[in-house]
Amino acid sequence: MSKNIFAIIIIGLALSIWSCEQPYTPPVNEDEQELVVEGYIEAGDETNPTFVLVTRSLPFVTEVDAAAFEKLFISDAIVTVNDGSNLVTLTPLCLKDLPEEIRKQAATVLGIDPNNTTINICAYIDLFDQIDRKLGGKYDLNVKVGSQLLTASTTIPNFVGVDSFRWAQPPGEPSDTLAQLLVTITDPVGKNYYRYLTQINDENLIAPFTSVTDDAFFDGKNFEFPLQKAERRTADLDPNTFGLFLRGDSVTVKWATIDKAHFDFWNTRDNAANSGGPFSSYIRIKTNITGGQGIWGGYAVGYYRLKCPEL
Amino acid sequence: MKKNYITLLLLIVVSLAYGQKFTISGYVNDKNTGETLIGANVIDTQNENIGTSTNAYGFYSLTLPAGKHIIAVSYLGYQTDVYEINLTADTKHNFDLSEGLLMDEVVVTSTKDDARKNVESTQMGSIDIPIEEIKKLPVLFGEVDILKVLQLLPGVLSAGEGTSGFYVRGGGPDQNLLLLDEAVVYNSGHLLGFFSVFNSDAIKKTTLIKGGMPAQYGGRLSSVIDIQMKEGNNQKYAAEGGIGIISSRLTFEGPIVKDKSSFIVSGRRTYALDLAQPFLKGGNFESTNYYFYDLNTKLNYKFSDKDRIFFSAYFGRDVFKFRQPKRDFFFDLPYGNSTATLRWNHVFSDKLFFNASAIYNDYQFSFRGGQDQFIFKLFSGVKDWNGKLDFDYFLNNVHSIKYGLNFTYHTLTPNTAQANNGDVDFNTGFLPKYGQETAIYIQDDIKVSNNFSLNAGLRGVMFSQLGPYTSKVSGEEFGRLEPAITYTGLEPRMSFRYGLSKNTSIKGGVTMANQFLHLVSNSASTLPTDVWVPSTETVRPQRSIQYATGYFQNFQDDKYETSIEVYYKTLKNQIDYADDYVNDITKEVEDAFVYGKGRAYGAEFFLKKAKGKLNGWIGYTLSKTERSFDGIEGGRWYPAVYDRRHDLSIVGNYQLTKKLEIGGAFIFGTGKWYTPTKGFFFTEQTLNLYYGPRNSERLPSYHRMDLSLNYTPNPDSKRKWKGSWNFSVYNVYNRKNPFFINFETNTDFNSGTTSIEGNQITIFPIIPSITYNFKWNQ
Predict the structure, then answer these.
(1) Which among B163, B264, B383, B688 has the fewest CB atoms less than 10 Å away?
(2) Where exactly does CATH 2.60.40.1120 map onto chain B?
């Protein structure tokens, strides 16, 4: 943590004074595309249906248009999930084949904007909710693409929910328009892993820059800490509003407990995305997919819908 | 059996008595300042094969047959001093040498000088650099930097653009033993390594040993950088300093008691961001600051020609304060070294010189930051107490023996974190690790014949991890000072020199070494946040064997020195992090290590001209360095980040007139290895990078040229104040050397478009600087 802040700020200062930039094109080997799995299985009071996206990785390309983009999504894979007693084959669905209403619902589940989506992407969904999703369950995934087989296994751990939320003035200068969201949880003794995402009004649910934590700092304790408003990585960040919520906003927090492998994936991914630059070496994202990249992750999940109060 | 002993004893006695011999011994000093001169050549002019050189304290001892002799003492940059003596008894004589402006102007007849060492010393892979030579070279931001000059020598690679970190013959940055007046310096860099901690004004001499490490040094695998601080002028008061664009420095020295005792105090501080403070006012980062400073001091007292004590100390800190007052966010990040050395020189006899040292050194890194109620603290450090006894026994003209004992008590504090959020506290509770390191050594520089000499040494080392400690393997508890595990090693060191002719020789050597303290970095260069760890029951000592051989030749009356050296090195128990390592302050770093092996080999070509109006050197290295770790890609041998196929440095200095001197350096290196991006993949509508095999691509080649101009308006002025200007341009032709590469991606998942942009960032384009330097003499 200190290392990242340290390096980023110093180099930021140094770079702004002296550095210069020029375009760089790495050596490209188009044949080396890999298969990528992104799938989630949730248990809780309110859940998304189980779905899996199967895509190909991109080599270094400067520009990808919609046609090439759609081709990344593989629609002829065979995707099965074994919950210990059933072997369920997921149904391939492409957005363009769906009636308008269902298409919007599906887009929401997949985390894309239901109203502005023009892209046709294909996913594999447990359409009839055949998988027995429960806390403590273990789920094996098989993805067959042609002769290639990808496998993964995940669990849905016990759910540790949020005790309470509290809106507070942001640290430092008080503000009429901004608020900080504080959350209290009671962490059970033993290793637990958490992840959260936030949604503002009608926007998509997105993950903050550091979306996962283990309980190393608060094992077995009743603990209050700030939740950050998630921001898009591409956005220009304002250090004075970063992580703070606008008063009047509707806020949805998706709060989940996850297993170690699922935590490792997001932990390495978040660190890889947050670092880069001269002083941190590369971090390989730790996948739980055998035979490819990506994540097959179980969530014990709770959704909390809040309103950031006006002053 | 008994008879044999008696015969042997008799033989020795007879050989000692054969032809009466006497010893002349003493010190070699600078006439103006009283500073001792290290490595000065002392020879008998009638028989040039009989000679010696002064040790690290300026002491020499030469044993000669009774009768008339003319003893000559020479030292680079000084006028040779000649002393005529009729030896009828053991004699003490101190030489005082005057500085000569240019060696060419000094009439030297029939004496050996520094250049002869290239072909005549058994030592190979060793280079002395007088500080005056270093000061003439071009600089970055006006800062004279010893470690950056070392990088211009063959076999020494820069760890990165603008950094003072370096790799020697395929070794990691932790494998260099950096000594400042015998004290180990654990972190040699200021400001993320862009500047070294060694203030050039306080330094007398720097010696780099990259191969054939003599037995008196140990504890590191790859090199020794032995830096000696000035003692201070014992004749008159003097000051020296400089005013530069980012920092200024001031040194003051003088006698405490003339001829007996002197002091030197030297300080340096940066102020670039102090000057920026008014511009930060009212902004988001008001009061954010970064500066560093160094303070060197040394005192010495000469009780007699037999006894002398020295006290030297260094204290340096980097201070980084980050403030974001609007959001109540802050952190302070101070770090730095402190060292202290107390030495006592005693001359037991004309032949036996003794030094005892007590050394303390401490490196600390700390971080304290937070926001609102949340406070986070981090601390790590190394602290050593070190005692040394060293003997120099100048037995006769055949044997020159050194032996000694070294004991160090280490305290290493791993990253210990503490956090506090309102009433919830957290503490990693990691205990410091303790260790004791003992070494005993003996080495003999043997002159077998005029052509053949041998330096044979043996160093025995022992390291114990000491309690209080609870075993991670067995759970066993060890009390204070109780050894939890002990490692031992025998390190033979051998080098030889065979003279083919007056001006040519071949040399060879083998060095074994053990290293018990390790620094592992998962970044491209080392950072102050990287933590030193000791060998423990799980972290085994690093070990290496290096074989080296070379051909040495001098041309045109020693005007040109050349050498070709080749080496092969194997490394065991190398340490790294796995590819998916994520910095986790709740775990001890040693629990995340992976272990492997390494090998390095190469050839080094060196041409040096140290005399005349034009001087400088050309160094070229062809090398290969690889590592293999079971935990990284199944043990595949891959090029280490320390690998660079070609590395060329051309360094020159030319005295145009008495007032004007120009200097230049050209550097070319094969691009650094990096782990390339193999592709990108989506999760949660965001593109992620994934990587190809470790270090499987190279950055574009690195090259640049630096120039400097030193202007002394009144070189012959008899005034007490003398000023000079240094104008330097770093990277004259503005080569855009890549420092790192980053990728920016921009995806609109709704419309199904994405773009990826690769950017190569250069941090040091053309950078001019100007420094005003001054000297004042009483």
Answers:
(1) B383
(2) 18-112
Q: Kindly report, residue by residue over B653-703, the tens digit of the pLDDT.
A: 999 999 999 999 999 999 888 888 888 899 988 888 888 888 888 888 999
Last residue of a domain, one of A117, A133, A155: A155
Contact B602, B620 (CB under 8 A): no
Q: Which residues contact A181 (CB under 8 A, 6 or more apart)?
A: A165, A166, A167, A168, A226, A227, A229, A245, A251, A253, A306, A308
Query: Which residues of chain B make contact with A19, given a CB cutoff of 8 A?
Result: 739, 761-763, 765
| Number of neighbouring beta carbons within 10 Å of residue B313 | 20
In-domain check, residue A2: no
**In chain B, which segments carry CATH 2.170.130.10?**
126-226
For the purposes of burial, counting CB atoms within 10 Å of the CB of A82, is it exposed (0-12), middle (13-18) or buried (19 or more)?
Answer: middle
Give the model's pLDDT for residue B4: 58
Alpha-carbon distance A296 to nearest alpha carbon in chain B (angstroms): 11
Q: Looking at the structure, do residues A149 and A162 belong to the same domain, yes or no?
A: no
CB B328 within 8 A of CB B3: no
Together in a domain, A146 and A244? no
The verdict on A16 touching B (C-beta cutoff 8 Å) is no
Nearest CA in chain A to B327: A172
Q: Is A203 on the interface with B (CB under 8 A)?
A: no
Asked if residue A25 is part of any domain, the answer here is no
Write out residues 226-245 of B within 8 Å (CB-CB) of A: none
- When pLDDT is averaged across residues B192-201 and rounded to a whole number, the result is 86
Residues A178 and A250 in one domain: yes
Domain edge (last residue) among A116, A134, A155: A155
pLDDT band of residue A125 (cuts 50, 70, 90) is very high
Domain B18-112 is found in CATH 2.60.120.200: no
The answer, yes or no, to whether residue B9 has pLDDT greater than 60, is no
Our count of domains for chain A comes to 2
Flag whether pLDDT at B12 surpasses 60: no
Total-model pTM: 0.89
Is residue A83 located within the same domain as residue A188?
no
The CATH number given to whatever domain includes residue A233 is 2.60.40
Is A16 among the domain residues? Answer: no
* Predicted confidence (pLDDT) at residue A99 exceeds the cutoff of 70: yes
What is the CATH number that goes with domain B227-777? 2.40.170.20
A284's tokens? 């390989």
The ipTM, to two decimals, is 0.91
pLDDT the model gives residue B103? 39
Asked whether the beta carbons of residue A24 and residue B524 sit closer than 8 angstroms, the reply is no
- Does residue B191 belong to the interface with chain A, where contact is any CB pair within 8 Å? yes
Average pLDDT over residues A46-75: 89
**Shortest distance, CA A6 to any CA of chain B (angstroms):** 9
Residue ranges making up the domain that contains A47: 33-155
State the average pLDDT for chain B.
Answer: 88
pLDDT-based confidence at residue A101 (cuts at 50, 70, 90): confident
| Gap between the Cα atoms of B689 and A268, Å rounded | 11
Residues A105 and A162 in one domain: no
Average pLDDT over residues B639-652: 93
Class of CATH domain B126-226: mainly beta
Cα–Cα dist A36/A143, whole Å: 10
Q: Which residues contact B4 (CB under 8 A, 6 or more apart)?
A: none
Query: Which residues 357-386 of B have a C-beta within 8 angstroms of A?
Result: 367, 369, 371-372, 374, 376, 378
Question: Could you tell me if A282 and A225 lie in one domain?
Answer: yes
Q: How many CA atoms lie within 13 A of B133 on its CB side?
A: 25
CB atoms within 10 A of CB B711: 15
Between residues A19 and B704, the one the model is more confident about: B704
Averaged confidence pLDDT in chain A:
87
Q: How far apart are CA A114 and CA A102, in angstroms?
A: 10
On chain B, the residues whose CB falls within 8 A of the CB of A279 are 192, 523-525, 527
